[in-house]
Amino acid sequence: MNRQQILDLYNWQSGVCFRHPGDEEVPTILIRVVHAVIGEREVRACEACVLAIEDARRETARRSGTEYEPGHVGDGAG
Hints:
Blueprint: H1 3-7, E1 13-15, E2 26-36, E3 39-46, H2 47-64
Antiparallel strand pairs: 1-2, 2-3
């Protein structure tokens, strides 16, 4: 599966990436919602960061001998 096919697995919305908070809003996915005393805060990731996370997931699966399935960043599926 190529990078664009992986990106196409996600529902993108405009937002600010957690790794690039000073940048403008870009297409992002929701990674998780953090519940704090000051209220809920969304943690979002841009395309480049999602691909980096997917690469890390793929490598972790390879090392552990488990199957890698793209498209699950942020949903708790490893």
